[in-house]
Amino acid sequence: MWTLFNGFTPMFAGMIGLVLTAVLILGAAIAARVSSTAFRYVFWFALGLTAAVFVKNMETWGVYPLLALIAALVAQTFALKGGMKTLHLLRMSLVEGAQQALPVGVACAIVGVIIGVLTLTGAASSFAGFILGVGEKSLFLSLLLTMLVCLVLGMGIPTIPNYIITSSIAAPALLKLGVPLIVSHMFVFYFGIMADLTPPVALAAFAAASIAKESAMKIGIKAVQIAIAGFVIPYMAVYSPELMLQGDWTFATVAYIVFKAVLSISLWGAAAIGFLLGPLNMVERGFAAIAAFMLVAAIPLTDEIGFGMSVVFVVWHVIRRRRLAPT
Question: What is the pTM of this model?
């Protein structure tokens, strides 16, 4: 994280993370054999200081000093009793890491072909231009269109390729409409993931169907009903970037928007499920949905109206529950 925030490339940051992980594993094996607590602290301090110096002078010395440090730790670990188990653990970690990277690499290669086709055919630019055209008249309609496209693009695709496809096609258009970079990427990624529970594909629903011995479509529809509040949060992040610590945020504004988001989620959930402190009738559910919508809408006075309706809804529901409670 430190290397990323200081302007180094992700490749460099990942390499440093792997190297220091290897140093940590080998160092832990050696430190475990040191009986004195004081010497153990001295060992960790010296090892951390040495690694920090090597990382700090990476541009001058290159990666070779770190590799030499790992080689020295490997030699020391090899001489310890039980050190072979540690070396085997390190080796298998490298093997497992390579195995986990293969599907990602293949997926990225396939996604690269898809992105290339969309770019060469002009489909991506046409889609972006259409969103920009709609966004000039209504940002909400462009967000709604982007959500629908991401739900289609994310169907049946693993997480990483899902993000690559949606971010390369839909996110740039939102960025040009003034949506902050991180918010635009998270918006498309969020709805790309939501495709796992959105019919007709809904891979998560199909997995649950085999366990519950029930119709996958029925489970998918119920999953959307339960998660309906989750479809609202990305819109709140766009209209209130403070939710993702973007823009001119303060602790007060972040606390306010988080409170508003939690209240809106609660109201949406109650309206969708039909239960809060007890069962809700259709009038209560409709009232709760309108109150939640007012909290989401970024129009003057909607927050005040939403908070007022929320208070009325809670008081109304509590009084109604008490009246219906058996004496």
Answer: 0.58
The gap from C-alpha 286 to its chain's centroid, in whole angstroms, comes to 31
Q: Which of 15, 49, 81 is the last residue of a domain?
A: 81
Each residue of 59-110: pLDDT tens digit?
A: 777 778 888 888 888 888 888 777 788 888 888 888 887 887 776 677 667 6
Three-class SS state of 279:
strand
Give SS3 for 275: strand
91 belongs to a structural domain: no
Q: Rounded to the nearest 5°, which phi and psi values hold at 179?
A: -75, 130
Residue 128: pLDDT band (50, 70, 90) is: low
What is the pLDDT confidence band of residue 291, given thresholds at 50, 70 and 90? confident
Contact call for residues 295 and 267 (beta carbons, < 8 A): yes
Residue 69 within any structural domain of the chain: yes
Within a domain: 213: no
Say how many domains are in the chain. 2
Are 107 and 160 within 8 A, CB to CB?
Answer: yes
- DSSP 3-state assignment of 274? coil
Q: How far is CA 326 from CA 33, 321, 322, in A?
A: 68, 10, 8
User: Which residues form the domain of 41?
Assistant: 2-81
Written as six digits, the tokens of 313 are 């809804």
* Residue 214 one-letter amino acid: E
Instruction: Say how far apart CA 192 and CA 160 lie, in whole Å.
Output: 10
Q: In the structure encoding, which two tokens stand for residue 145, read together?
A: 């269109």
